[in-house]
Protein 1
Amino acid sequence: MNIILLGPPGAGKGTQAKRLETMRGMRQISTGDMLRAEVAAETPIGLDAKAIMAKGQFVPDPIMVQMIENRISQPDCTQGFILDGFPRTESQAEALDVMLRKKDMNIAAVILLDVAEDQLVERIASRRDEAGMRRPDDEPDVVRARLKVYRDQTAPILPYYEKGGRLERVDGMKSVEDVGLAIDAILQRVS
Ligand code: B4P
């Protein structure tokens, strides 16, 4: 089973995708993690992405679409995948549908994690990696820019999935465990 996790920055997409990977063996495909790996390896994509991400903006659609097309074609994705951070624009959502049709794949559910903006800001302010470091794009002024980009470019794709009857809303303000249980219930219903 393949699913999409949608939601603003800090909504808990990565947290829940990791839980699903551990509990169900589905593969987490985090475009944020993939881009951070490109940045760390100083690849041509990473060198371009670094400045874009530091401003809280989106990496161009063609790069992201190609990255996802390559990733979902890997053998480990046949056991099911979770798109975490993709699609983020209308153009990405449309390209994803075309790509999935071509590959005879489908998406069982599009799950939106709903979290109030003040809660997002609070969560991101306290987020640190394993080494205790804050991500450059988690600085407060960049977080404000990312929330605006979400409102302007990602929120408009919600009606696209709502119209197709594929959008499932989950209250992302609950505990990590309760959000996970709500997602489990959806997956049980659609499987
Ligand atoms: P991402 O890496 O996807 O960043 P994110 O949206 O901030 O994180 P997420 O929602 O996964 O939150 P998390 O679980 O960590 O993107 C980074 C950047 O990459 C983008 O800004 C963009 O520049 C670029 N990019 C990525 N994809 C792209 C695309 N498709 N197109 C163009 N550009 C792209 O949770 C946040 C915090 O909350 C954690 O500290 C966690 O512990 C806590 N938390 C989680 N759930 C909780 C809960 N239920 N209760 C309390 N706390 C909780």
Protein 2
Amino acid sequence: MPTETRTTCPYCGVGCGVIAKVEDDGRVSVKGDPDHPANFGRLCSKGSALAETLDMEGRVLAPMVSGRPASWNNALDLVAERFSSAIRDHGPDSVAFYLSGQLLTEDYYVANKLMKGFIGSANIDTNSRLCMASSVAGHKRAFGSDTVPGTYEDLELADLVVLVGSNMAWCHPVLYQRLAAAKANRPQMKVVVIDPRRTATCDLADLHLAVRGNADVALFNGLLHHLAQEGHVDEAYVAQHTTGFADALMACQHASLAELAEATGISTLQLRLFFQWFAKTRKVVTCYSQGVNQSSVGTDKVNAIINCHLATGRIGKPGSGPFSLTGQPNAMGGREVGGLSNMLAAHMDIANDADRDRVQRFWASPAIALKPGLKAVELFEAVKAGKIKALWIMSTNPVVSMPNADVVKAAIETCPFVVVSDMYGSTDTARLAHVLLPSAGWGEKSGTVTNSERRISRQRPFLAAPAEAQADWWQMAQVGCRMGFGAGFAYQNASEIFQEHAALSAFENDGNRDFDIGAHAALERQEYDALEPFQWPQRAGSKPDETRFFANGRFYHPDGRARFVPVQAILDHRPSTEFPLILNTGRIRDQWHTMTRTGKSARLSSHMAEPFAEISPSDARQFDLEDADLVELTGTTGARCIVRALITDRQAPGSVFAPMHWNDSNSARARVDALVSNERDPISGQPALKNAAITMKKVEAS
Ligand code: SF4
């Protein structure tokens, strides 16, 4: 009898429900889950091709130590012994974990508990630092908490949807489908796309503002100034629910529309139109994604956007609000359990004494981390400097995806002890492991993920994990036990971890923290298995319809008020003579991250078959390039990469777009992120992956 399993797509932050069907002969097919509130049955090209990526080629089937198969016992003993000896000889900050938004919340929870609560270091960061850390920092500055107030339905209810730095059509395709369907039914709805590139998302736009890279702060400061000048500020809301408006307005440095046009690259006509639409539309949702976050001024960009929503009181209401879209399937779930090195579990702060005390008592922890740990770029800098003696990388491929990727690779090569947990043994990172641990993958493991609208959904297994592959949480719990922390890590299944996570979220939480799923703290295993998607918070005894954040105008700062954050518009990355172009790295429609899974599907790979760079016609002329030439891109890091030139007027002069997916395994010298320097946002630590200075030259046929 064929069996059907309801689960969740493992790719982007939309978090679509999937029904996987396994036939009697083992063949798997997938379709969208019509009852899942994220997608109502829709799937994009990547989700539809999930069944094509489930073959066993490249899977790690047994633990490997120094390239040779080993038993789990021996491998885990070795990991525990090497981490323990590094801690004994060099202190707890000499070890580090680097995690992934691909991990399930239960994996993330155990990793954070082990590192922050038992090892006593906060050197645990994640590739989600590359994805949404600036939004987290912006939320905390404005709201006093990392709270995403928006829901997908808000996009459908809004009369104006502003998409900033978000190629939603390719990067959140099902949400884009929902938006397109809503727009088709609601003639009054307008969509504004703010992006230096004319992306596929612009097909839906009533107005495309081709903003210069990093000029978003100038644009939204200009909007705030306009709102104040033209009498569109909600004075009562600002007075009752916020502080800091005057300072934020002062920071807008009044510029004429012509000066603003010069700074942003947007015509005065378009600026005026956008400002008027925003000012006069009551229901406005502003969505933002990597074009905002992946910047040296990412946090300021987030706050410049939020400032405009606070000024108009357009937050906490249906069809209104700022809305950060997460890139990865579980970037949000990682945040809930303290997946970033400056956070503790359940949206508590390492830097807060009361929070540390609360978590330590709950965990009965012997050595809670006392200070924030290293953020992703700093973490690999510490590896390079020889300060990290033992490193555990899980479910991610930093040798390809980190900025300055060549240096990251060299750093990992010099680290005395590297553990990699992954499904595949041939990734650029897995090849550097001293110990390679076989992880269960999508369709094999059990747990939860949280999507961009705070909706927690189950990932359920429908296939047996191959050979000796095991869940990531199990691997860490086993190492925790072997390091002498047994009582805290005696989990039998993912359900027990979820229960503990839910109980911690409610522990001594009388409404002073946003994240609370206490309603699920006593979930039985069968209830966990049957758990329907739900949005947090869901406090003990609360109903799902009580979940709209900020509807009562109260925020999580001690005085209950939101903060306007004064942000200065600084235009950085002025091109130099040596590196006259700005590289904007990004994603394409049919690939996911470093292609370890999507690269298996011939159908997906046929969309764009080789690495390329989009170059404007004027830059092509200047650099003597023709369409389909091979072009060598060189970054300030000294790294080079060779890709195919794609000449297109979608690309603004002075900038080059190149996808980050290709890697050494499938295309030599195409690791684009190697060109990007370690420059990062000083507040969030998020690297500026969309603003790297480069130059380029044609590769002459030899
Ligand atoms: Fe998966 Fe995202 Fe596509 Fe949905 S939109 S099917 S979550 S990749």
